[in-house]
Amino acid sequence: MGILSQLAIIHLLLWAAMVVCQHEDYDFGDEYDEEPDHEHPYYFNFHPSTQHEVPHFPIPAQCARECFCPPTFPLSMYCDHRKLTTIPNIPIHIQQLYLQNNDIEAVLAGPFTNATILREINLSYNKIKFHMIDHGVFAKLSNLVQLHLQHNELEEFPFPLPRSLERLLLGFNKISRISRHALEGLPNITMLDLCNNFLDDSALKGKQFSILKNLMQINLCNNRLQTMPPDLPPSLMYLSLENNSISYIPENYFSRLPKIIALRMSHNNLQNIPHNAFNLPNLLELNLGHNKLKQVFYIPRSLQHLYIEDNDIEIINVTLMCPSIDPMNTNQLTYVRVDQNKLTAPISTYAFFCFPHIRTIYYGEQNGNVNKSTQLRTPVFRRFLTPEEYDETEDDHETSDHETEEDHETEDNYFHANFQ
């Protein structure tokens, strides 16, 4: 009996080894265009308490008639680009639901009745309005991690939402209001995209973002803000505020945001920057292009990329940027873009003592008199690289000496919603 028991255990282990786990991401291949085979349903295991694993009891992998459930990805249901006006019933086993690019106007509770383990929903590019979302329909999805609602017709921040949510994308809507309670109960949110909405200063007076203790990225570009958003959480690492009407940065505003890595504030109305406004220990990228700045400011030692193009700067005072030199803790600045300012001479060579790692300064064309531009003798400065430095950068997207505004256009885009 002992030998038989051991053989039975070995047989059970071999059978378990044949289970193939479900991938979270679907690679769109040729099979996306194939019709689902309803005559031969795919079988997999199910256990309602498991989020990531293929469940344990074999049942047929059902799929909504309007959608496609790839046999190789049985936990995903693709209903996108199908001119749907309503959400189909969602089978109990589905974890990823893709409904983008349809004509859906309402999110009703009925189709989600059995969707107990949904982790991702993509409802972008539809016609959903705030009042057409059944109250609590999302809050009941206790395993939901990512929700896409960008490119809809939402007038208000949707709520309530599940505590499990980590990434919420609401860009390209008509949101002008954020209820005081809309962000309560979201302790796990790390990324919030609100770009291209109708938010103004009054919408943020309630300091709603301060309760998001794990927020790492917030995108507020292309709104109607005139002042900096109040009380952002100290966990923040990426802040996007491009294309607003912000005219000043309060003293010590960033002292409560020590983890900021990238700050983008291009296309605002900034005129003066407090000297030590960006004294941040982790800042790597700073974009203040297309403002009204007249002089430079202190550059933290960690900064690598600085964009101050299209401002009103006539002279770059290197001493303001670098008041002292520390051979044991050198500045890390490698790239500076200063085109479309009012410079008449290149940056002082003292800059290369303060910023020994500079590789490129893009001067481009400078604004002279009205309707007239000038060009410095060296439109692009490139420092000679040592063989070791060249090996490090040979795969980078270094541009040619004929750089133009178009060459840099993509650098002005706001943070991608799916940053890694």
UniProtKB/TrEMBL annotation:
Residues 62-96 form the LRRNT domain. This is Osteomodulin. It is found in: Secreted, Extracellular space, Extracellular matrix. GO terms for cellular component: extracellular space. Pfam families: LRR_8, LRRNT. Gene3D superfamilies: Ribonuclease Inhibitor (3.80.10.10). Keywords: Cell adhesion, Disulfide bond, Extracellular matrix, Glycoprotein, Leucine-rich repeat, Proteoglycan, Repeat, Secreted, Signal, Sulfation. InterPro entries: Leu-rich_rpt, Leu-rich_rpt_typical-subtyp, LRR_dom_sf, LRRNT, SLRP.
